[in-house]
Amino acid sequence: MAKAVIAGNWKMHMTCAQAREFAAAFRPLIADLPGDRQVVIAPPFTAIPTLSRHLEGAGVAIAAQNVHWEEQGAYTGMVSAPMLVEHAVTHAIVGHSEPRKYFSESDEQINLRARTAQKHGLVPILCVGESLDQRETAETERVIHRQIEQGLEAVDPSRLIVAYEPIWAIGTGKTCPAEEANRICGLIRGWVGNPEVTVQYGGSVNPATIDDLMAQSDIDGVLVGGASLDPESFARIANFRVSAAV
Hints:
alpha/beta
């Protein structure tokens, strides 16, 4: 059985000094992590070498928050896959709702990012999700199906993570009910066409909601924002507990 993937997206938080402090506090809290799960952290680009070095041997994978589709060139402010691989990065988030919104990333660009990530041995974490308006107008399934269809063209589904992140639940404190999140994650699995694909839920995940989310049949992990910035909070999420009776 594939491991549950517990990923933290630090966004534009954490200096290198803060990343060192986080690593020192976090390591002992996951020393006895069950073997059925994998922890991934996506720090800002500047903190990747620091976090990689200070979590070496702790069983934590390092992700990038994005990746460009070219290996090099006149792309000011961008980071390429070879640059990431050099620092032991293993995963790359692509298609997060914030770059889609603030930098007008298209499904075509996101697809190029995912394909390039795989070409260089990185596992893309493809984010999909609907806005509040789209949910209220019954567009959720159409929107996500389109994002999957266009975002995964020529992408190997066996080396992929898909994260369902309803936009209206990101950073708002609102969490999609676990049963509804599970329903959408099940649809995503079917649309990807690979029953073994890892499907995460993301959107205001925290220690109070993690156990219920991970008890669902089609949720294989979580993509955590704010709660991943606190070592104790994120360690509790990584150490989620699912009743044997579930």
